Amino acid sequence: MGDTHFNYLNICMAHNEDCNYKFMVKNYCKFHYQRLRRNIPFNQPKKIEVKNKICSVENCNRKHHGKGLCKFHYKRQSKNIPLDLPFLVTKNRKCQIINCERKHHGLGYCKLHYNRIKSNKNLNDPIQIKDGNQGCKIENCQGKHEGLGYCRKHYERIVNPRSRNKNDLYLEVSMNLVRKRDKNTCKWYNCGKTSKISRIDVHHIFPQSEYPELKYIQEYMLCYCKEHHAIWHKYRGDKYYKLILN
Domain coordinates of the chain in residue numbers? Predict the structure, then answer.
């Protein structure tokens, strides 16, 4: 492939192949040095790169990516997928559920039905129209819909049962006086937590729902930390004791 003597002319040692480029590595130009490394004969004709080359698959006019294929068919070949399979049209695609005209989101479904599949819900459940006019689902309640099928008042009672006291100013004053009396400290036996360690709740010894006439009397109130407040309601059998820990 050429002599190994010192190159006085500073040109590629493959000059017999009509190469007049300057040598770069081991007395060869970059092109012939790469051929030397890969054991490719110097006289092998050079591949001519064709501009604007397209995919070799029939009826595919996409731009060439590699191995005679476009990027789409190149990925199919690397994953052993038949090249002649029809591809899905994602533009303006609709949900595959009958009578659903929503835009496609994933797995052939719109966003609503896709979320139902993820949460293992029935796809054929009626769709609730959220226009703000459906009202509260509590019987004889005329309030405007807020969330989860409830008006604002009932929604707050379900999400945060303690929020029902916010509209009762007299009850708030009584509870604040109890906090001041107990120095905002848990009165559970051998506890003594303060508001710096845990949230302090005002506990009604006689529940408000059963004894509404006693809810303003400060002698029937105590300060408990949220942990012991939840324990008291758990022992009593109240289902909402977990909400107290939030």
Answer: 1-44, 51-83, 88-123, 131-162, 168-244
